[in-house]
Design goal:
The structure is a single chain. The protein is an alpha/beta fold and about 200 residues long. It has a single domain, classed as P-loop containing nucleotide triphosphate hydrolases (Rossmann fold). Helices cover about 35% and strands about 25% of the residues. It has 6 helices and 12 strands. The strands form 4 sheets. Strands 1, 5, 10, 11 and 12 form a 5-stranded parallel beta sheet that branches. Strands 4-8-7 form a 3-stranded mixed beta sheet, with no helix packed on it. It has a two-stranded antiparallel ribbon with strand order 2-3. α2 runs parallel beside α4. InterPro entries: P-loop_NTPase (IPR027417). This is GTPase domain-containing protein.
Amino acid sequence: MLPFIIGGVVLLAGMGVFRYSLLSSKKKEIYVSVLGPSSSGKTTLHNFLRNTSYRDATIGHNDLDKVVIKKDSKKITIKKGKDIAGTEQAVKAYYKDEIKLSDFCFFIFDSYLVLRNETYSKEVNARLNFINKFCRNINKEDIKIILIASHFDKLRDEQTNKKLIWEKISKIASEGKINKPIYIDLTNKNQLDILKKELFK
């Protein structure tokens, strides 16, 4: 059985759907990884999740400190982690270790490029295939993998482009059960506030 790549069931104001809160984990400490191609928004997402201001990891990785997330009576610690660069070299050097450690793995890609650049689209699919196959090989069934389609503000016809994006990445459906991504502009504070509310509810 392969891990679920999940989007969820809660509507996020046109952004997509989501169904898992980091605060609902039974663990007191969790490891969160963020993987994806270069310039997709990995560092921005790390900073959003951890409430930090790290700079982009353009080569290799940046080390991330652990943080404690509190909401009402709930509390969880996000362990020390790595902000992985988006290069092909980084895939070979870090992806396996990140997947082994992860309780939650965000895979983020540029929604504009996945439609406009066939090479980029193939790269996204290849990396998702790698993640699926490696999880199967090591029996990593408990990992939650969350798809994020960033830079969605660059596309005008939302419904049409959501369908087209899904058609591009659903080619790897045979490798595991894959649900639709969250479509988001990571520079839009309102969208980030909605996402945060769902991730930490």
